[in-house]
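User: Predict structure, ligand aspartic acid.
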Amino acid sequence: MSQILIIYTGGTIGMMSDPVTKVLKPINFEQIMDNVPELEKLNCRIKVHSFEEIIDSSNMNPEIWSQLAGLIESNYDENDGFVILHGSDTMAYTASALSFMLENLEKPIIFTGSQLPISAIRTDAKENLMTAIEIAKAKKNERSRVPEVCIYFDYKLFRGNRAFKYNSSKFEAFRSPNYPILAESGVHLKFNVNDIRQPLDGEKLIIHNNLVSEVAVLKLYPGIGPKVVEAILNADVRGVVMETFGAGNTTTDSWFIDLLEKAIKEGKVIVDISQCKVGTVELGRYETSKQLKDIGVANGYDMTFESAVTKMMYLLGEFDDPAMVKHYMETDLRGEITVS
Ligand code: ASP
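Assistant: Predicted complex:
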């Protein structure tokens, strides 16, 4: 019989409305289980690890990501898969971070949560939880069907580092426009086998726990001036995620290009991702991105913002040399990027 470890970090799924203030607050895991007696009917053993401090995911941070990675490592051999209950607000960041932190993953790590608490009559939590467990235990020829870090929400399974939260009020909270869904739940659970990554045979799980969060974000807008750009580039960080226009374009004003070039010469890595949610950065396609390529801005192609930030944190922890960080920023490591 398969064994699944459920790790409960918090989120709306396990919240209850305070009778007096009406504010949503986290409850403990036993109260969650009481709401889903169906769990006992699943043909698998379920173990639970509840974090001591149950959080709204807006309080998530790299320290907790390390704890999560450590927990997966120490429970890896005796479990067939993992389901992580997590608030949806920052779920895509945690899923992206863990995808980089867990190398040679052979077992499913399925993040899920819900838009309504599990105790609410119209809750989406039960379906999300039950199917996440089904996916975590699904095997074919003794191998996990989805050996990836994923997000399961509203009948769809996404690659974690390709998804982002796009809707705060619909049950359909996540999207992954630059990569196909990995599975869909309907009458049957349909796995899109050709889009699921398979691990290399015989490689052992490696945990990368040294995330460096010295990352700044430069989001461009027409009219942004030297003071703002300088303040961001002069921040005490080693990496900058730059959100640009369209296919990776920026102003060609010389003050702007000069500031970027100076930051790169000082050893900062700047990666270019687009403000568009669909499509890819094409450095050099337009005059407005040709100079970026020439001065050494890294191409983020079609990476999500969540993926770019957490990948930068991961790479800064792995390498001191900015050239290596830039190189791997532009390389597909966990299926997070389509290098074109
Ligand atoms: N604020 C909640 C959280 O991210 C929202 C949710 O769970 O969906 O923890």
